[in-house]
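S.,

Sequence below, as promised.
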Amino acid sequence: MNDSHYPRCVLNRRMLDDPERSLAAQVAAALIGGRTGRPLDLGDTQVIAATAGAARAIRRELARVGVLSPVFRMPMESLDPPGRRLADRIEREAAWATVLDPRQRGGFATLVPMAVDLRVAADRFGVAAQLCGVCDQLALAGCDPGSPETAMRLHEDTQRWEEL
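The prediction came back faster than expected:
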């Protein structure tokens, strides 16, 4: 991940631990912070949300107090520079399904067990969806799925990460 794209990114700060309030309400309060103005405009703020549902819940909480919404992005989108279009989830799954060609299985034998019949479309797209999920989880952690750092952090499964 190239940190120069997001110089004011704050990660790993524990601030959302109030059991009396919803997580979305806590995120909204953290985003507002000490800002003032009417209406308060968070259009210059980017929020990386794990799901579209989480983004909607936060947006609803902000709307309740009259705040103009920040920009919401999905985890994998956050890895690309601003202004560059990233493939959506369906396009990424289709790309994985193309890569998972059973005739080329030698290139990813460690990644997908032989018990999985990649000739069956449902199995192939199921694996593709799982691989997209892995990439999304890595992106949530601020990791690039293709970076050598990811493989080094998870050294017990280095060969799988190299194939990924």
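Residues 40 and 67 are 5 Å apart (CA to CA).

Coffee later?
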